[in-house]
Amino acid sequence: MHDLDEQQWRELLQRLRRFALWLTREPGSADDLVQATVERALSRRGQQREREGLRPWLFTILYRLFLDTKRRERLHARWLSWFGQGLAEDTANDETERIVLAQADLQAFARLPTEQRALLLLVSVEGLSYKQTAETLGIPIGTVMSRLSRARAALRQLTEDDPAPSVLRRLK
Asked: What tens digit of pLDDT does each residue of 35-60 get?
């Protein structure tokens, strides 16, 4: 693809992994998603011509692969439910107060719908413009702005009204 040096690739991959981790909520799945993204980008590198558009293009690929995976998982879960099997999620608690409070904020963020998390991550964390975010997610720029406003309000409500920190253990 583009003439990026090793450090630029590392930074780009870290950004993609961070985004994937927030979407999937699982390190292994995030790594798989980033790998699939890079494979897809390399196989279609002729479609991307501008160096400045590389990052949004990779985020677009990653997000669309994530959505495709979610659709397949829902179909698979439906099949499993027909056979009486279910899926479970694991949660972990940390012991220090600082980590617990930070974890509560992250959990509030994780409770947001996928679309809201994606918007907040792309605009606030990755620094993409509204236009780039709109192109990445395949939605109009006005929709990005209104959904982003609702996402910020929802996050504010989750963190201020119902922080729900994990239970702390008292150490002697």
From this structure: 999 999 989 877 766 667 888 999 99
C-alpha–C-alpha distance, residues 146 and 36, integer Å: 31
Q: Can you read off the two tokens belonging to residue 124?
A: 């606030």
Tokens describing residue 96: 């220090």
State how far the Cα of 4 lies from the Cα of 51, in Å rounded to an integer.
9
- Percent of the chain that is helix, strand, coil (3-state, to 5): 70, 0, 30
- Please state, as a whole number, how many other Cβ atoms lie within 10 Å of the Cβ of residue 10: 11
Domain at 1-90, CATH class = mainly alpha
Domain boundaries, given as residue ranges, for the chain: 1-90, 92-166
Q: Are 151 and 119 in contact (CB under 8 A)?
A: yes
Using CA atoms, how far apart are residues 58 and 16, in angstroms rounded to an integer? 8
CATH number for the domain formed by residue range(s) 92-166: 1.10.10.10
- CA–chain centroid gap for 62, Å, is 9
Is this model's pTM higher than 0.70 or not? no
Q: How far apart are CA 70 and CA 67, in angstroms?
A: 5
Separation between Cα atoms, residue 139 and residue 67, nearest integer Å:
14
